[in-house]
Amino acid sequence: MDLRRAVDLFVSQTGHWTASRWVQPAGPAGTRGDLTHGLVQRIADRAADAEGEPRRPVPRLVADPALTDQLRVVAADLIAAAPPEDVSAAAVADVETVRAALS
């Protein structure tokens, strides 16, 4: 599976969630929002590495439903950077792992 498809599936699963669903616990990582924000940060870090840029913190927006938009943006950045296959595969695996944890 490619990263764009993995993100589309993630957004299909979570894109309609209300704020109250995002704040539900997701294990030791905190809330579903916390878990997803961590995913967004990891994808952004991979994109920065692939672009030869410094890593920067991704802001945590007030509205957790915006996390799916943030994920789409950082995934598009990573795809545009054309990283090595192992980096793309790791990003896909990360998205799928978090998606499964949110089920």
Explain how this protein is built.
This is Mycothiol-dependent maleylpyruvate isomerase metal-binding domain-containing protein. With 103 residues, the protein is mainly α. It has one domain. It is built from five helices and no strands. It has helices spanning 3-14, 19-22, 32-51, 67-80, 85-101. α1 (3-14) runs parallel beside α5, α3 (32-51) packs parallel to α4 (67-80) and α3 packs antiparallel against α5. The protein starts with a helix and ends with a helix.
Topology:
Layout: H1 3-14, H2 19-22, H3 32-51, H4 67-80, H5 85-101
User: What class would the helix/strand composition place it in?
Assistant: mainly alpha
Instruction: Count all strands and give the number.
Output: 0
What percent strand?
Answer: under 5%
What's the end-to-end separation, in Å?
A: 19 Å
Mean pLDDT level? 95
Total discrete domains: 1
Low-confidence stretches: none
| Strand/helix succession | HHHHH
TL;DR of this structure?
The protein has helices at 3-14, 19-22, 32-51, 67-80, 85-101. The chain is an all-alpha fold and 103 residues long. The protein is globular, with a radius of gyration of 13 Å.
